[in-house]
Amino acid sequence: NKKAFVELLFWKSPAAVREMTEGYGSLQGGEGTGRSRVPPWTPQEEQELRDLYWKYKEVEGEDVIAAILAHLPAPGRTRRQVVKQLVRL
Predict the structure, then answer these.
(1) CA 76 remoteness from chain centre
(2) pLDDT digits (tens, 9 = 90+) for 13-23
(3) Is the pTM of this model over 0.85?
(4) Which pLDDT tens digit goes with each residue over 23-75?
(5) What residues have CB less than 8 Å from 15, skipping those under 6 apart?
């Protein structure tokens, strides 16, 4: 490829550099992408999130998200994921 030198000037991540040096398609199954895929919210989890939000939103002096995280049955959800999902809902 005659224009490969331009690509060398604008590396985006170590994974992109690895692909350029070892050949495209060398990363299997998304390894080295830096971020793991967040599991999607199931309808049951969304409903539970709604219920917990309505239950704890009126409690004064307490962090709503912390209360939701403490009672959320799905382990491994982060505060950021919960906030993002509440905004989306």
Answers:
(1) 11
(2) 777 777 777 77
(3) no
(4) 776 666 555 455 557 788 889 999 999 999 998 888 877 888 888 888 888 77
(5) 27, 32, 33, 34
Residue pair 40/77 in contact (Cβ under 8 Å)? The answer is: no
76-85: Cβ within 8 A, 24+ apart: 76/39, 81/38, 82/49, 85/41, 85/46, 85/49
Alpha helices in 4-63 (DSSP H): 4-9, 14-22, 43-56
- Return the amino acid letter for 27: L
Q: Which two tokens stand for residue 79?
A: 């505060």
pLDDT the model gives residue 47: 92
**Identity (one letter) of the amino acid at 74?**
A
CA–CA separation, 72 and 64 (whole Å): 12
Contact between 12 and 25 (Cβ < 8 Å): no
